Each structure stands twice: as structure tokens, then as C-alpha cells.
Prior knowledge:
2 domains, alpha+beta, single chain, two-stranded antiparallel sheet
Amino acid sequence: MTKERIDEIIGAAPPSTVDVDAIVARERKTAWLRPNPWMAAAAGVAAVAVGAAFVLAPGSSGTVSPAAPPSSPPELPEPCKIPTLMGPVPTEKPADAMTRLTGVLTTAVTARLAAGTTLTPSAANYPEADPGRGPLQVVHSSRPVTNGGGGMCSGGEDEFLAGATTVRSGKRGGVQATLGRMGGRLNLPADCVDQAPEGMEQVCRRTIGPKGEVIVATTLTAKGGGPSIHRVEVARADRIGVILDAANAVDAKRDGKPDSPAPPLTLEQLTEIALDPGMTLYP
């Protein structure tokens, strides 16, 4: 999760009121709706073309001569084009993948949760049009890209999502997962971001997995004793990206302090889950 994405999600809310469940849930529900970088790139190409209309002639001091016109106008990208998905196209049908991934994820998570922890549904982690899902039930979220005009684009995701609320001794937390082919909208960071989001402290580490996976593990903690997010982003060698989050929930009765002292899963446990051989899409 980049600094810009966290800032976009939590806005300018004071740390004591940050709802971590909302942060990690809205990360999956928020549409791709921001100024299109392709528009800026297109404008830059046009500016360069105009700026190069005159150049200094070689061997003269201040003499201006017309530049040679380009053989053809520069090709500008489609307004809402997104990068091509990488890796082999999965032959596994989405319905089959959802069933299989639900089993893999549920087994991997429950095996690592503290004794006495139960999983309950968390509707906030699923698309609004897909309610009533069980805990860690994987769903397929896929929408075509829509051009809203003015360089504003939405849709374009093709991902598998799941989430659940954890409860232990009455104290709540949350676990969320996103999995899909890299490229498109699922662009994982190659390294840690330089600066933490405003109002939060960050500890980040980048490592390489046993099969060449790029692993970025981050802890974000709201200042002033606020809640924490453990996030692991893994770019697998098979070009499948996996994002796992674990967070402790805010307790309104405790002035916005965490309901539990720590997220329900550690960064090491999330990494183990992300590297599970079954956490992929079969080619």
C-alpha cells in the first residue's frame, strides 16, 4: 500500500479515529478513480513536440533554424489503457478457483491464529454487489475498464478477494487477502516506500523468497497508540501477486485505541501464507 493510497483512504482524520478495518477494506472496494497518468504523458509528448519547433543551428551562435518535422505524429496511448496482465493465462475456471482458494486460505489462516480465535463474516471486505459471504470465502472481482471522461478511469480489476473478522476473548481484528495475475491494476511495489503516510509510523522490509519471490512486509501503526496493519505483498515467480493484511480493530469505547494489542497474524505468518503453493492460479 503506497503512501498516496493510505492518504487517499484515511484522508486527514486524526490518528485516534482511524478505522483500520475501513482502510484495508476500502483498499479493495475503491474504484480505480484518479487522474490518468497516461493523460499527463500524452500532454508531455505534445509539449515536447511544440517545444522542439525551433533549434539552434550547429556552428552558429544564436541562429535559429526550423527543426525537421517528424515523419509521423507521436502515437499517444489510449486514455484508459492499463498494462497487460503478466504470466500465463490461467486455465482454472474462476468458480473452481474460488472454491479451491477458499479452502487453501482458510486452512492456512486458521492453522496460524492463536488458540481460541474464531472467524466471523466481514461484509466490508467484499464488493458491495456481493454481500452475504462467509469468513474468508474467496470471490472473483472483475470489471471492464470504464472511461468517465477527463482522464478519469474506473474498473479494470481482475482479482480474487476474501476477508474475515477475527474474534478472541471478545476482542476483534481482521484478515484480508487479494490475489491475481500481476500487471493490470495489481501492481505490487518492488521495494519499501520512502515515507510513511501522515499520522502513521512505518517499519518495512524487502526480502527475496526461496523461489525468487519479491516480498515487501510492512507494519503501519497510527501514532499515539493507535491500531496497526501488518501487510505482506508478494510478487510470486509465477507472476501471481498476493496481498495479505492483518489488523487490530478500533474500539470506540476506548477512545479509538485498538481493541486487541496486536494484529491477529504476524508478518512472518502472512508471508508463510502468501508463499503457500496453493495460493496461486493454475495455468
